[in-house]
Amino acid sequence: MARIYTRSGDKGTTSLIGGERVAKNSPQVEAYGSVDELGAHIALLTDFAAEEGLDEMVALLDEVAVDLMTVEAELALSDKYEGTIQRVCPEDVERIERHIDTLSESLPPFAGFTIPGGHRIISQCHICRTVCRRAERRILTASEQCAVTESLMRYVNRLSDLLYTLSRWSTQRLGVEEKIWRK
Fold this sequence. Notes:
Elements: E1 13-15, E2 21-23, H1 27-51, H2 55-75, H3 90-105, H4 120-142, H5 150-173
Antiparallel strand pairs: 1-2
Helix pairs in contact: 1-2, 1-4, 3-5, 4-5
């Protein structure tokens, strides 16, 4: 039986795709680690949506989960990697934008920022959104040291917009009153 542990990271380094070893706290590892965390939060949101019978949301989040694995792989590439992997492309960004537009059609006009809460799905959408924004910041920091494509940056930015839209869509579908921040 193959072991899950390799002991190769015991001194604080890890391998990128391509074999290059880097510190586990390098900006590049922080970036794809944050995306990995987002993927785990998306999985929990998907489970919650499935329990509530929100099949349309489940299907959408399943797409996002696959996309996030692509984002992680792209971020984990060594500059020395000479192979090919699937990458985030402009069509992925356009697909997310179409989802946002479709979901928005059934929503009341934007009346101000919403306050998270009212149902665990709504709260989890906002957790995913904030983790996505942090991942975006980590990716931006990593881009100062390694190549990050414009499509990847745009995808992660749009994804946080999608998660916000899903929170509003969920509010409507679940019959929860939307809490608008009023100063």
